[in-house]
């Protein structure tokens, strides 16, 4: 019994103990499981949160590249609010093109061809170097009321002019005159086309805007202009035949191609077969609206026609006939007088022919101003694909009507130096439009490709703009220079001061963008971004610097230091200090940066070579490179020219590339007037084996390994020896500054300034007399113009050089 009880008791105790132990175990496991699940859920939640934050941040960063700067627009008055500049020759890429400063303005223009030329596509429309015209360009253009242009397309001389008649609420009237003469006054058949077109790049024009032909005239309507009419009124010569078409063109960039498709062959009693404009079948087949109305006139030269645009709300009669001729002569006299009052070239003793060239240089700068509207393509490191910038207008000069008929950021800074002397109103309006293109990061795309006509003329590889790409802040420097030389325009309460005040936050953002994104590894050093080594280039380009193929370190790396950019930042800090002081803003940080970047000891530590006694870039460099033809592995593939590195690169100063970059501490007046380094630069400046030539300063020393060397098989030298006017302008400006500043080098600077000025002016004028053009660059060997023509952008600074105004 006892044993049984005992066993039962034991048994009960064991059961009880076992049960208790099992409960504890399950409870512990459950607790641990709960904790694990809790931690797991928390971890997963954190990871999800971090992913969400990352995605959200990435999405935010993706949008910054095309997010506008968050502040009031600088441009306040647009369109008809600026009535005196509403109409103009704002299509610089065509030989004559008028439009208004509205995004959806109708456009007007001319085309022409010799009677036998239509069959081999000899129609002139876009300014094109391949047309090989003897010369073309504005002889006078005031940017506001009138212009006169000469086009020589042998054997024809085509003189175009226009005059505006202001008034009314819809832009007023204007008249364009086209006068065609032939050598020896021969009576030659000639085909002239006047057209009107609607820009549908923003969407269909109809039903709000319309064009049509009626009784020999072009009629139209837009919401801004209301009803308008264009009459073609012959003034001299025989009009042998007229034809027209009402058509639908696929875009403004294809007007000439559309015109070709409209030409039909018709028998003519005098000429046999004659190409005339016929109906556009696409209007009926595809049920499209009319957006293109060309009128073709077969004329016998000499021939003159007035193209008279009128708007219904202005009762003032439009100019035509003898009255137009009389007013045109008055305008020309007024222009010549105004030109002399601003630049005083007659007073300085220049002969009439040279003064006429200077007037043409200014007029082509002014006549090259365009009005564009659209959205560029941009990309950042956070966007997989290019994205559109926001749609915006741009009122700007262009470097070249034939090759670069669009806006370029650093070019516009140089343009402004001349435009501002002629018309402060125009220049401040241009600067305001550029500053409205700044994004929330403080970045401005350096090349503006806005609208179908602009886009059609840019190679695909240059369309997309990277937000890592800078361009020299010349526009900022030009604005500050304007403040210094014309302080009366910026007094308290003035219109231009108010404009500058609205600009200031954007200028601050742009300046800070440079300081943040273009800084180098070493304190007070800077590095241009965007250099890419593709293995094909002899020396990878630095397009962002504006100097393109100028030799830098042979192997791009993060250790690079670019002396020109450091000097640009010195000038930018000085500019910000000037503008801040004018606007009574705090300028202390800009002054501190200017003082730091102006510290010659710091500059010399980073960029001065004691061996060559020159300033230079720093980076991973070797001169042991050359282009070689590489045989392909696959015999069916063509041989490729690539770069061969014969000597490994080393971190070093790039002293072998003595040229424009080496001069920047002088060019931008970083060096003090008593600097011994300035003395050395001036000592070497007129050495013909280096940069001096009878025609100006060459861009790269004749002793440099890459002097006039191709960069790739298909890429000829660009900034590797040729003479460029903007850098010669900066050199002359700095030489005059150091000549007037006193000190041990003043006499040397003055002597060099006089000789260099004579060389540059004489050559540009001589080449214009020889060819009828200003050029993009000039040869240091014989002075001949090269690159694209006409180049009426910064080469027109010759006007200021002649006037000795900097």
UniProtKB/TrEMBL annotation:
Entry's localization field: Endoplasmic reticulum membrane
Catalytic activity: N(4)-(alpha-D-Glc-(1->2)-alpha-D-Glc-(1->3)-alpha-D-Glc-(1->3)-alpha-D-Man-(1->2)-alpha-D-Man-(1->2)-alpha-D-Man-(1->3)-[alpha-D-Man-(1->2)-alpha-D-Man-(1->3)-[alpha-D-Man-(1->2)-alpha-D-Man-(1->6)]-alpha-D-Man-(1->6)]-beta-D-Man-(1->4)-beta-D-GlcNAc-(1->4)-beta-D-GlcNAc)-L-asparaginyl-[protein] + H2O = N(4)-(alpha-D-Glc-(1->3)-alpha-D-Glc-(1->3)-alpha-D-Man-(1->2)-alpha-D-Man-(1->2)-alpha-D-Man-(1->3)-[alpha-D-Man-(1->2)-alpha-D-Man-(1->3)-[alpha-D-Man-(1->2)-alpha-D-Man-(1->6)]-alpha-D-Man-(1->6)]-beta-D-Man-(1->4)-beta-D-GlcNAc-(1->4)-beta-D-GlcNAc)-L-asparaginyl-[protein] + beta-D-glucose
GO (cellular component) term, any one: endoplasmic reticulum membrane
Membrane topology value: Single-pass type II membrane protein
GO BP terms: oligosaccharide metabolic process; protein N-linked glycosylation
GO molecular function, a single term: Glc3Man9GlcNAc2 oligosaccharide glucosidase activity
Chain intervals with Basic residues compositional bias: 1-10
Disordered as annotated region, ranges: 1-29
Low complexity compositional bias, start-end: 19-29
All residue ranges annotated as the Glycosyl hydrolase family 63 N-terminal domain in the record: 86-270
Pfam families in the cross-refs: Glyco_hydro_63 (PF03200), Glyco_hydro_63N (PF16923)
Domain Glycosyl hydrolase family 63 C-terminal: 320-803
EC numbers: 3.2.1.106
TM region(s), chain numbering: 39-61
Keywords in alphabetical order: Endoplasmic reticulum, Glycoprotein, Glycosidase, Hydrolase, Membrane, Signal-anchor, Transmembrane, Transmembrane helix
UniProt record similarity statement: Belongs to the glycosyl hydrolase 63 family.
Function: Cleaves the distal alpha 1,2-linked glucose residue from the Glc(3)Man(9)GlcNAc(2) oligosaccharide precursor.
Protein name: Mannosyl-oligosaccharide glucosidase
């Amino acid at each position: 019994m006892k044993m049984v009880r005992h066993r039962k008791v034991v048994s009960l105790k064991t059961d009880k103990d076992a049960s208790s132990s099992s409960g504890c175990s399950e409870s512990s496991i459950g607790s641990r499981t709960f904790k694990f699940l809790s931690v797991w859920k928390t971890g997963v939640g954190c990871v999800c949160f971090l992913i969400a934050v990352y995605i959200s941040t990435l999405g935010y960063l993706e949008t910054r590249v095309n997010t506008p700067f968050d502040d009031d627009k600088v441009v306040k008055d647009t369109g008809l609010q600026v009535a005196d500049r509403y109409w103009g020759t704002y299509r610089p890429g065509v030989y004559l093109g008028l439009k208004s400063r509205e995004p959806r303005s109708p456009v007007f223009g001319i085309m022409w061809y010799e009677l036998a030329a239509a069959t081999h596509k000899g129609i002139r429309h876009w300014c094109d170097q391949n047309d090989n015209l003897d010369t073309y360009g504005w002889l006078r253009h005031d940017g506001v009321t009138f212009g006169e242009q000469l086009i020589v397309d042998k054997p024809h001389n085509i003189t175009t002019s226009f005059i505006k008649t202001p008034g009314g609420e819809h832009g007023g009237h204007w008249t364009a005159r086209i006068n065609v003469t032939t050598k020896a006054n021969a009576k030659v058949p000639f085909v002239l086309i006047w057209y009107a077109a609607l820009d549908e790049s923003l969407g269909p024009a109809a039903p709000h805007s319309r064009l049509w032909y009626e009784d020999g005239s072009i009629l139209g309507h837009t919401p801004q202009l209301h009803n308008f009419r264009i009459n073609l009124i012959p003034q001299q010569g025989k009009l042998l035949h007229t034809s027209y078409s009402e058509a639908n063109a696929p875009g403004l960039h294809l007007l000439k191609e559309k015109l070709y498709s409209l030409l039909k062959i018709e028998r003519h009693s005098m000429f046999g077969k004659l190409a005339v404009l016929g109906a556009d079948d696409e209007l009926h087949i595809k049920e499209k609206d009319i957006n293109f109305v060309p009128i073709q006139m077969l004329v016998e030269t000499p021939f003159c026609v007035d193209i008279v645009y009128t708007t219904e709300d202005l009762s003032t009669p439009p100019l035509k006939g003898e009255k137009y001729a009389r007013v045109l002569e008055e305008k020309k006299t007024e222009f010549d007088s105004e030109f002399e009052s601003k630049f005083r070239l007659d007073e300085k003793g220049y002969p009439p022919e040279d003064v006429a060239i200077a007037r043409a240089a200014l007029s082509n700068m002014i006549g090259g101003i365009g009005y564009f509207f659209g959205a560029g393509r941009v990309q950042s490191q956070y966007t997989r694909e290019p994205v559109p910038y926001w749609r915006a207008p741009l009122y700007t000069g262009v470097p070249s009507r034939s090759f670069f008929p669009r806006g370029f950021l650093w070019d516009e800074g140089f343009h402004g130096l001349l435009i501002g002397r002629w018309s402060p109103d125009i220049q401040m309006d241009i600067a305001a439009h550029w500053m409205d293109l700044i994004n929330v990061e403080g970045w401005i795309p350096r090349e503006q490709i806005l609208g179908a006509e602009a886009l059609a003329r840019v190679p695909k590889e240059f369309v997309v703009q990277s937000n890592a790409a800078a361009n020299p802040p010349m526009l900022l420097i030009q604005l500050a220079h304007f403040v210094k030389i014309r302080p009366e325009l910026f007094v308290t309460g003035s219109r231009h001061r108010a404009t500058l005040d609205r600009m200031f936050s954007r200028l601050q953002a742009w300046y800070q963008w440079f300081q943040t994104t273009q800084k180098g590894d070493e304190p007070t050093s800077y590095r241009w971004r965007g250099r890419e080594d593709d293995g094909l280039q002899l020396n990878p380009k630095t397009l962002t610097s504006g100097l393109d193929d100028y030799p830098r370190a042979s192997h791009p790396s993060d250790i690079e230091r670019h002396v020109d950019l450091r000097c640009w930042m010195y000038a930018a800090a000085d500019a910000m200090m000037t503008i801040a002081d004018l606007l009574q803003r705090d300028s202390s940080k800009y002054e501190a940066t200017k003082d730091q970047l102006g510290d010659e000891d710091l500059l010399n530590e980073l960029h001065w070579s004691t061996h060559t006694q020159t300033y230079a870039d720093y980076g991973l460099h070797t001169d042991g490179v050359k282009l070689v033809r590489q045989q392909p592995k696959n015999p069916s593939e063509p041989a490729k020219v690539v770069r061969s590195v014969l000597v490994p690169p080393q971190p070093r100063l790039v002293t072998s590339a003595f040229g424009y970059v080496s001069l920047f501490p002088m060019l931008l007046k970083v060096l003090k007037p008593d600097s011994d380094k300035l003395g050395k630069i001036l000592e070497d400046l007129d050495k013909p084996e280096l940069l001096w030539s009878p025609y100006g300063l060459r861009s790269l020393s004749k002793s440099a390994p890459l002097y006039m060397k191709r960069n790739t098989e298909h890429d000829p030298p660009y900034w590797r020896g040729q003479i460029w006017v903007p850098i010669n302008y900066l050199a002359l400006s700095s030489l005059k500054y150091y000549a007037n500043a006193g000190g041990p080098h003043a006499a040397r600077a003055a002597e060099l300034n006089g000789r260099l000025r004579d060389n540059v002016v004489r050559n540009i004028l001589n080449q214009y007399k020889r060819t009828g053009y200003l050029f993009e660059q000039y040869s240091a060997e014989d002075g001949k113009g090269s690159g694209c023509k006409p180049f009426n952008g910064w080469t027109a600074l010759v006007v200021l050089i002649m006037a000795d105004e900097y």
